[in-house]
TrEMBL record:
Keywords: Disulfide bond, Glycoprotein, Glycosyltransferase, Golgi apparatus, Lipid metabolism, Membrane, Signal-anchor, Transferase, Transmembrane, Transmembrane helix. It is a single-pass type II membrane protein. It comes from Electrophorus electricus (Electric eel). It catalyses: a beta-D-Gal-(1<->1')-ceramide + CMP-N-acetyl-beta-neuraminate = N-acetyl-alpha-neuraminosyl-(2->3)-beta-D-galactosyl-(1<->1')-ceramide + CMP + H(+); ganglioside GA2 (d18:1(4E)/18:0) + CMP-N-acetyl-beta-neuraminate = ganglioside GM2 (d18:1(4E)/18:0) + CMP + H(+); a beta-D-Gal-(1->4)-beta-D-Glc-(1<->1)-Cer(d18:1(4E)) + CMP-N-acetyl-beta-neuraminate = a ganglioside GM3 (d18:1(4E)) + CMP + H(+); ganglioside GA1 (d18:1(4E)/18:0) + CMP-N-acetyl-beta-neuraminate = ganglioside GM1 (d18:1(4E)/18:0) + CMP + H(+). This is Lactosylceramide alpha-2,3-sialyltransferase. The chain crosses the membrane at residues 42-63. Its EC number is 2.4.3.9. It is found in: Golgi apparatus membrane. Belongs to the glycosyltransferase 29 family. One of its GO terms (biological process) is lipid metabolic process. It holds the Pfam family Glyco_transf_29. The lineage of its organism: Eukaryota, Metazoa, Chordata, Craniata, Vertebrata. The keyword Nucleotide-binding does not apply. Disulfide bonds join C167-C325. Its main location: Golgi.
Amino acid sequence: MTTGQLIGPIGAIFIHRSRPAPMKPINKNACTLNAAIRYPTILFVLFLVIILISIGLLILLLADTNQKHGVKFADHSQRQRVHNYVRSVLARECRPSFARKNIEMMFPSSTPVAEPFLQKNSNLTEQMFRYPLPFGLLDIQPKIKNILNIIPISSSEKTGRHGCRRCVVVGNGAILRGLELGPLLNQFNVILRLNSGPVKEFSRDVGNRTTFRMSYPEGSPKIWEDVDPQLQFVAVMYKSVDFNWLHAMITGTKVSFWDKLFFWQKVPGHIPVAQSKIRILNPEIIRQSALDLLDFPKPKQRLWGWDQNIPTIGMTAVNLATYLCDEISLAGFGYNLSQKDSPLHYYDTVSMTAMLKETMHNVMREKTVLQRMIEAGSVSDLTGGVHCSFC
Ligand SMILES: *[C@@H]1O[C@H](CO)[C@@H](O)[C@H](O)[C@H]1NC(C)=O
Ligand SMILES: *[C@@H]1O[C@H](CO)[C@@H](O)[C@H](O)[C@H]1NC(C)=O
Ligand SMILES: *[C@@H]1O[C@H](CO)[C@@H](O)[C@H](O)[C@H]1NC(C)=O
């Protein structure tokens, strides 16, 4: 179904909770104890050491149970099956415009979006100002004009296509762990990655090339690992202040203190990508994913803002890929929500429980729609987490 950072703020909370307890409280206790009981120092040190060792053992024990319940590495036969399927997908002849044509057949009432990215010379149509972010540009016209003026016109988009493009959208699901798909994923023409899905330590499972990294400010990598010279960064704008952040990233300036207050998680202060490789996702892609593909209700204005169901970045990436690619495969998509203790991502220990608490996204609806696309053959699911056509 979906991918990585759809856990949103909940994920952030979980990450914070799973950090080891800070040392401060222990020291504070130690001071009061020391002051209260004037015992010989050596006894007190011994006492402290025993406490620290017990805490250490407890942490090890917890980590161990976590491993037993959570991490399930793919076994040999499963790995073989997946590898054979991916090889068969790569061996097929690439069919030009295949994914887009099929999606248009599946969703006949949906009008194709004119351009996937916003540029200086983009036609900002009336339709684009109908809804606020992330579905449109309502009320932020000056901001958008300002930012489009500073980004150079992309040359790669204008020069058109270089042959038939076979793409893989790499989701951040734990299903990728131990599958050792890296070398096969690297063979796709275009590799889309989401948010901070890392490549360095995990290249055996997820490959190391990145053609597009698509992310919103809070989800962007704090430590940048991509070294692919082709990489383009696709900025996904969910709220008005995201444009201030992007402006700072493009101009190499600091994100202001006031702007920082509006982010629910720390945002990177620097994105090491050339100005000419930064793209702004057209909000029409998100609107189309939500209203046309997922059939979410139209956003409604309420007293305190807008009431809307927002697609995950994974679903949005699949729709974007239909404009950038000829054929689309998914890897690392799909969560098994009935395995509550199992990990959510291939790179951390956040568990499925975090996903179950998520209310902003409609994960079940997304799974159903992706399943339909896969069953119809419009998109291939390489790891079989949404719909397994090779199991
Ligand atoms: C914008 O619209 C005009 C007229 O409809 C067209 O000539 C032009 O190519 C469009 N620009 C882009 C970037 O699509
Ligand atoms: C990926 O790894 C291969 C093999 O280690 C290496 O030759 C290649 O340069 C790497 N590519 C990127 C973009 O990191
Ligand atoms: C999800 O996990 C449950 C419990 O382990 C299992 O019975 C079920 O088959 C899994 N579903 C899928 C689609 O893998």
